[in-house]
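WARN no homologs supplied; continuing
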Amino acid sequence: MENQQISSGLTVITPNTGTNTQSNSSSSNSQGWQDIEDFEVVISASSYGSSRDDKYINGNVRIDANSTTVRNTEITGDLLISSSSKGRVTLDKVSVSGTIYVEGKSRLVLSDSDVSDILVRSSNSDVILSAEGETTAGTVYLYSGAEISEGKLKKSYYGFEDIVIEDSVKNNSRFELSGDFNQIDVYASRIKFIFTSGTISSLNIEDTAERGTYDIHSGTTVDTVDIYGQSSSFSGRGRIKYANVYAKYAYFSVKPDTVYNDYDYDTGSGSVSYGDYNLTVYVEDEDGDDLEDARVTIKREGYSSEDWERTNSAGRAYFGDLYNDYYDITVEKSGYTTETKRVNVRYDDTEIRITLRESNYKKTIFTVFVTEVDTDGEYVFLPGAKVVLKVGTSTVEKITSAVGMVVFTDLDIGRYDITISKDGYESETGQILVSSNEADNLLTLALIKK
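OK structure emitted
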């Protein structure tokens, strides 16, 4: 039969002229990535099917279109969303008896649909899967990074129940999930797993899944996590009810309700540790006043974000149960410059103060006068005194003039450490606040003779 072009934009092809040329990939516990042949239908238009009539396709289907909606269609074979497909692909009241393969940089939306297993492998790692309405799907096998969400599912419909993250996934691949999941099996190493909302009944981290980071957001719940992959790190403020640790090392920023540690100590030393260090970030404006509603984000060096929260009415953001390590702190607020600093959380209670400046701020100057008390009890200018201002990680040093004055120019708004000294006099060390009002940027200090 010759190829026939149909007005809806689909092509009936017999024999097959399009084949998925991806090679088979080894899989931890699925049938693996299969080549699909003999496409009965290739969809290259923005829509297929209608809300009035049902369609029946006895065979395999390939979608090449950039953004398309398939409606009221039953597919007895496999469905391939090819690598040439980009944009949103919506399956509305669609059933797929075979497997769905996702290659493209696509968002696959399942609405009131009943499908079997879904395999995702995209070179772009930008695949988004979402389920809504009366949708039920089989197991989702992930060979590349993806985002999976369940939104507005009707009662008694499960959406995506089981997820498998395959061992062939590249290092540092990102997986973000939201919804209620039955079981998630992780076989891949060094992944970034982010759970933003919902519940996970069972999270299994297999022995091949080493050095993964799992960010369990506040408000989420993991009923049981079984950890076989060594050096797994859990951050965030979510709840873990039961943690069974069979690995050499596991870290939790928030301690699970119950922990069972059954590592084989004959083969090496194993440990389970919990965050027990605290960090307080104070946020202020250029005048030294508390700044409210700034977003404070902390990121542990070499790991995904640990936690974040907005500052409260006292200009304070508190982070508890942290690890003894370096953290990058980012503070943001609309109308102000964004500031980033690094802090070593090395004490039980570490504090840092960060100043935000208005977006249109300008640099300013600060003047220091150094005096002493003469024999008559009068204050006189003291030349030759050394004034050292700490600016960031460096220092600026100046010597007072004949009138005991030094001027520091081109300063950012904020707090600075200052030291004033001279041979034969007691040194003075303190902190100054450089504001946007140059009239306030003045310090007069008297040194006392030894």
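Residues 364-446 form a domain with the Immunoglobulin-like fold (CATH 2.60.40.10).
OK
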